[in-house]
């Protein structure tokens, strides 16, 4: 289900189709995006849209790629003749349901009404998500600027699937689709069947967990042909840290009194942990050491093409899960109505846009402007660990992150030169106090 705040479906569709190699005049006297879409469909030899200009009908089309074939359908809701528990299935040819390669993308002609959401997207409310997006963006200086342009902000365009293989795979294993899609765009699912973690690990994705992938595009510094903001390739490593900060920031936006938000912490390089009351604590007032439990993680993939890079930021965050799965809801001592998948997703995405924009505006400073905030939220200041990747093993103390290349900085016990560790080459077993070379 492809949803977005109006009139973004038209903008997204026109840009996606133009990425297929079609040409159209950008100097049209009539700026109607509907007419642009109809012209693009003409170039594809599809039937032109018919009906009211404000609610056009487009013919389905197929976008074939390496891992998946995306079948686009244009629908008007509500649908008539419902005969199944999940009526959307009636729109999909039965012969294609047996093919894992085929992905059906349903594009509503207009946002679903609340009663339609309960029927067609019962596990997720796009309208609640977009209301939260608007809420968290409200009051920002650039709000009016975006309203008066054909651009959109992070979170304002969404592909939602109730059950998918992996939101990350849908983007980064389909290079042509990834490159053709306009940016920014979010893929979000209620359940993943093959969720991915760092280093080839699997990420379990039951209902109650927020799993989404965000695609952004940015120009590479040094290319004169790229309009807008650019980034040094060496600074791409900081995206995982910036997104982790966005999750921390989102928790404080959702919980301004910090009743539970202060218990959300960062584990280097890309994990989210919660500080839970000790299971062995005899009373809730015990001063025993909190129990660290993982509640989320981040995975970043990059795809370079000419003078730009497409970045896919995947994240999983346990929100409403019940024990034994640790989640944000369990960090709160009382029920937290602010915690829903829709609101947390909106808070994370809007926080990341603010952080990402600030980073790009001061990109030559690297991670310097964010260092203090990051170190306040992480778990490792002055932590003593053993480097098993060295022979003999070395005992070191963690002192921070290098602001130029995002390496974990350690200093040997007893003195000596810094030992800096790459996030992609090492595995951190925090519970055992060991940093080892990542396998595979």
Descriptive terms for the model:
440 residues, alpha+beta, nine-stranded mixed sheet, six-stranded mixed sheet, 18 strands, globular
Write a short abstract of this structure:
With 440 residues, the chain is of the alpha+beta class. The chain has helices at residues 8-18, 33-43, 114-120, 126-137, 143-147, 167-172, 175-180, 239-254, 328-331, 341-361, 371-377, and strands at residues 2-4, 61-64, 69-75, 102-108, 157-164, 185-192, 209-220, 230-231, 264-267, 271-276, 291-305, 308-318, 384-387, 394-401, 408-412, 419-421, 426-429, 434-437.
Would you write up a description of this structure?
With 440 residues, this protein is of the alpha+beta class. The chain contains eleven helices and 18 strands. It has helices spanning 8-18, 33-43, 114-120, 126-137, 143-147, 167-172, 175-180, 239-254, 328-331, 341-361, 371-377; strands at 2-4, 61-64, 69-75, 102-108, 157-164, 185-192, 209-220, 230-231, 264-267, 271-276, 291-305, 308-318, 384-387, 394-401, 408-412, 419-421, 426-429, 434-437. β9 (264-267) and β10 form a beta hairpin. The chain is globular and about 75 Å long. The chain starts with a strand and ends with a strand. Residues 23-45 have low confidence and may be disordered.
Shape: globular
Estimated helix fraction? 10-25%
What is the element string, with H for helices and E for strands?
A: EHHEEEHHHEHHEEEHEEEEHHHEEEEEE
Spatial separation of the terminal alpha carbons: 36 Å
The SS-based structural class is: alpha+beta
Poorly predicted sequence stretches spanning 5 or more consecutive residues = 23-45
The fraction of residues assigned to DSSP E strands is 25-35%
Mean pLDDT: 81
Total strands: the figure is 18
Helix count equals: 11
Query: What gyration radius follows from the Cα positions, in whole Å?
Result: 23 Å
Biggest sheet, in brief? Answer: 9 strands, mixed
């Amino acid at each position: 289900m492809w949803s977005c705040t109006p009139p973004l479906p038209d903008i997204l569709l026109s840009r996606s189709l133009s990425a297929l190699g079609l040409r159209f005049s950008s100097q049209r006297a009539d700026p109607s995006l509907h007419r642009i879409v109809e012209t693009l469909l003409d170039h594809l030899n599809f039937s032109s849209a018919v009906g009211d200009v404000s609610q056009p009908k487009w013919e389905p089309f197929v976008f074939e790629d390496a891992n998946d074939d995306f079948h686009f359908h244009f629908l008007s809701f509500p649908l008539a003749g419902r005969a199944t528990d999940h009526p959307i299935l009636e729109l999909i040819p039965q012969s294609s349901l047996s093919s894992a390669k085929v992905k059906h993308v349903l594009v509503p002609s207009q946002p679903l009404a609340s009663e339609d959401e309960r029927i067609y997207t019962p596990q997720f409310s796009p309208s609640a998500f977009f209301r939260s997006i608007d809420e968290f963006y409200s009051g920002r200086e650039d709000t009016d600027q975006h309203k008066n342009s054909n651009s959109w902000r992070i979170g304002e365009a969404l592909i939602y699937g109730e059950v998918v293989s992996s939101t990350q795979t849908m983007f980064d294993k389909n290079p042509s689709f990834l490159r053709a899609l306009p940016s920014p765009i979010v893929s979000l699912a209620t359940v993943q069947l093959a969720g991915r973690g760092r280093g080839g690990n699997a990420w379990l994705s039951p209902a109650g967990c927020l799993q989404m992938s965000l695609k952004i595009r940015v120009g590479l510094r040094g290319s004169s042909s790229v309009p807008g903001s650019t980034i040094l390739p060496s600074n791409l490593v900081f995206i995982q840290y910036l997104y982790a900060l966005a999750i921390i920031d989102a928790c404080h936006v959702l919980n301004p009194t910090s009743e539970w938000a202060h218990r959300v912490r960062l584990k280097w390089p890309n994990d989210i942990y919660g500080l839970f009351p000790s299971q062995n604590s005899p009373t809730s007032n015990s001063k025993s050491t909190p129990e660290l439990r993982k509640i989320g993680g981040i995975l970043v993939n990059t795809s370079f093409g000419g003078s730009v890079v497409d970045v896919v930021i995947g994240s999983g965050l346990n929100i409403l899960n019940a024990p034994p799965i640790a989640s944000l809801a369990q960090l709160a001592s009382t029920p937290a109505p602010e915690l829903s998948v829709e609101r947390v997703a909106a808070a994370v995405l809007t926080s990341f846009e603010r952080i990402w924009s600030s980073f790009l505006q001061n990109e030559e400073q690297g991670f310097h402007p964010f260092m203090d905030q990051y170190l306040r939220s992480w778990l490792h200041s002055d932590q003593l660990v053993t480097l098993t990747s060295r022979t003999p093993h070395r005992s070191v103390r963690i002192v921070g992150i290098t602001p130029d290349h995002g390496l974990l900085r350690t200093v040997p016990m007893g003195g000596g030169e810094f030992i800096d560790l790459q996030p992609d080459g090492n595995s951190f077993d925090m519970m055992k106090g060991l940093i080892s070379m990542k396998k595979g």
